[in-house]
Amino acid sequence: MEQLLNAFQNATQAGLQNIAAALDQFSKGVAEEIARAKPRAIAASEDDEQLPLDVALFDSAPTVAVPKHAKFVALQEIGHRFLMTAEGVFVEVRRPWAHIIQRLDWTRDSTAKSTGPIPPYGTVEEKVEFAFGRLGSALQELQAFAAEARAALPNEYAAWIIWDAQKQKLQYRPLPATSATPGSITFDRPALAEHESLAIDLHSHGDSAAFFSPTDDADDAGEVKIAGVFGGLGAGSEPDVAFRLCVLGMFIPLKVPAAAIFKQPQEA
């Protein structure tokens, strides 16, 4: 009887070990399948019927980011991929006899005809769209700033126009200066509620011309906003303005006629 009991216990233990091994293998298989099914970084809806074609293209020549802090690991398999870097797009090619990394010509000069590989992706049109419509929607706020900037002469003046996402409207907000002179102004950035964001950043140059200085370039770098400068505000001067869209260090000029803001009274 004791021998039978020992045999049963040994068989049971061996069975449990086999089950555990099978479960472990199953878990690894599921994890690998999930990793293979992980969606690619493609800007498309997951239920788009054409997405598998783009996935196949992506897998044939993927795009990867080159790390800024971690060590770059070169392509090991035979094939090629595109490298996104701080200096443009590079192509990396691996063959049994060569390993090549080269910057793509068209990332240096957008007007140059490409003679090298092109990432197998689609194209997109440039776009600038504001939730409040055209910049002219802020005319009332811009005129309010012009009046207050003139009142602050000879010193510079500053104000923000805030986008209120709850009310879906622009709101004018003067910025009390901590220091203001005819050539500079400093202020503490106001705290904004979660539903508020800076849309238009305004400052004046007093009676001087409207332009963006190197200091303005440094202040605007890294921000997403519309920046505006008002100048020629003194008596007898011709008012002028300068506007640009700031996009993380890229500046896009915006045409805003000063006459639309500084309306002259009609002659009788």
From TrEMBL:
GO terms for molecular function: metal ion binding; metallopeptidase activity. Residues 142-243 form the JAB domain. Pfam families: DUF2016 (PF09436), Prok-JAB (PF14464). The keyword Metal-binding applies. Keywords: Hydrolase, Metal-binding, Metalloprotease, Protease, Zinc. The keyword ATP-binding does not apply. Residues 52-130 form the DUF2016 domain. GO terms for biological process: proteolysis. NCBIfam families: PRTRC_A. This is PRTRC genetic system protein A. It comes from Paraburkholderia bannensis.
